[in-house]
Structures are given as C-alpha cells and as structure tokens.
Amino acid sequence: MNAQVTVSLRSSPLSPPSQQPSQRSSLGGGARLVFEGVVRGQEAGRELRALAYQAYEPMTTRELRRLAEEVATAHGVLGVHVEHSVGTVPVGGVSFRLVILGKHRAEAIAACDAFIARMKQHVPLWKLPVWADADADSDGASNDDRPSDQPGG
C-alpha cells in the first residue's frame, strides 16, 4: 500500500489546519489524527518568550519524508502529512503538526507516536530557547543554548 505523504517546512508559526474533506474521503479512512506541538511557556523551569527552530536543508525535508513513508508502511496508514516551523515561534504558537489518516484509530495513534519519537532522535531539526528574561537586543539565547550536533525537536 502506498500512503499519501506530504512534508513541508514553514518559515513561521503554523496556521490552523485546513479542512480537506475530499482528501479524507478519497483515501477511505475512518480515522484522522491531528497532533500539534505548541511552544510551552517554560523550559527547564525558566520562562520562555519563544523557540527558534533551525533545520539542515535539504536533509531535514528528505529525512522527514523518509520517516513518514517508513511509519506509514510499518503501521499501515493511508496518509501522513508533516509540517514543521523553522525560525522563531512564540509561546502558544504551533511549531509542528502531524496528520495521520488511517482506516482505524489504533494504527493512526501508533503511527503518530512512532513518528514523533523517531523524528526527535533522527531528523536534523534543532530548537533554541528564546528566554523571556533575555536582553531585548539579543536573540535571548546564551552560548550554552546554541544547538548541538544532536537532532531534536
């Protein structure tokens, strides 16, 4: 089975998800799971103003697509749609959206969990805290906050 897979990186916070009834009905699924990652107001007990996301393109898009295809095949889902922000996303903003279309809820939920766990380990996306108490002239990140060579989101 070939699942529909779409991947996009956006240079801003994500807008509300679009309703795509024709796509849903044409795939024949009974489950549509939408997961959104929202920037929290605190990180490690410290107030945040935002998170700044960095990606290593074109590898990031390629790895997100590969991961979506692998997860779709492993869990037998009909579609995987991935959106991730790059750049600065304020507290309360949506930085990540994963939509899984499946015949049933169980495989959609399992696919969602597997995708997110693997994305955090293997996809070259980094988040940098922009602290609320940082100097207004700086980006809010100290040298210790710069992304390491380890992926994560």
Quick structural overview:
The chain is about 25% helix and about 35% strand.
Strand content: 35-45%
What's the end-to-end separation, in Å? Answer: 29 Å
Order of helices and strands: EHEEEHEEEHE
pLDDT under 50 segments (min length 5)? 20-25
Number of strands: 8
Question: Main beta sheet: strand number and arrangement?
Answer: 4 strands, mixed
How are strands sequenced across the largest beta sheet?
A: 1-5-7-2
CATH topology: Aldehyde Oxidoreductase, domain 3
Q: What is the CATH class name?
A: Alpha Beta
Helix content: 25-40%
Describe this structure as you would to a colleague.
The protein is α+β, with helices and mostly antiparallel strands and 153 residues long. The model is unreliable at 20-25 (pLDDT under 50). The protein has helices spanning 21-27, 59-75, 105-122; strands at 4-10, 31-38, 42-43, 46-55, 79-85, 87-90, 94-102, 125-131. 31% of the residues are buried. A hairpin with a 2-residue loop joins strand 3 (42-43) and strand 4. The protein has a four-stranded mixed sheet with strand order 1-5-7-2. Strands 3, 4, 6 and 8 form a four-stranded antiparallel sheet that branches. Helix 2 packs antiparallel against helix 3.
